[in-house]
Amino acid sequence: MFNRRGGDLNSRRFWNWFAAEARGLANAMEALSRGESDAEWALIALNERIHRFDPALEADIVRDLDGACRMTVSGPDASVDLLIQAAPAMKGWQFSPPALAADGRRVPFRRAPRPSLDLLGAPVQRHEAYA
C-alpha cells in the first residue's frame, strides 16, 4: 500500500506545487546566472517533486537573456506529453519537451561536468601575454 513504484500521474498536484514555487525557482536561476548562488538545490527539489508524478521524468530549467524561464521535461513521451499538456499558462515561463528546446551548445546544469579536485588545486598558470 505504501510502496508505490510508479508515480501518481496526477498532473494537477505537480502544477499546483509548481505555481507556488515558480517565483523561487526563477529567482534561483537568476542568482545562478549572476554567479551569486548555486541553484542545484532548486533543481533537486523540482526533480524530487516531478518524480512523484512519474519517477522516469527529469526536468531542467534555463533562464533566457530576456528573463523568461524555460523548463524542459525529458523522459517517456507519454508522461512528458501528459505533463506538458496540463501545464498552466504562467507569465515568464515556457514548458516543453527536450526536442523542442534542444540547443546543442548547452549542457543541462545537472549533467554538466564538474571540475576535478586536481584542476581546482592546481596552481594558476600565467599566460605569456600577461607576464
Give descriptors for this structure.
single chain, 131 residues, alpha+beta, 5 helices, 3 strands, globular
Short description:
This protein has helices spanning 11-33, 40-53, 77-85, 98-101, 117-121; strands at residues 58-63, 69-74, 93-96. The chain is an alpha+beta fold and 131 residues long.
Can you characterise this structure?
This protein is an alpha+beta fold and 131 residues long. It contains five helices and three strands; from the N terminus they run H-H-E-E-H-E-H-H. A three-stranded mixed sheet has the order 1-2-3. Strand 2, helix 3 (77-85) and strand 3 form a beta-alpha-beta unit. The N and C termini lie far apart (68 Å). 17% of the residues are buried.
Major sheet details: 3 strands, mixed
- Strand tally is 3
Low-confidence runs (pLDDT<50, min 5 residues)?
none
Whole-angstrom Rg: 18 Å
Supply the number of helical segments. Answer: 5
Strands side by side in the biggest sheet: 1-2-3
- Element string (H = helix, E = strand): HHEEHEHH
The pLDDT mean sits at 77
- Identify the overall geometry: globular
Distance between the termini: 68 Å
Helical amount? 40-55%
Structural class: alpha+beta
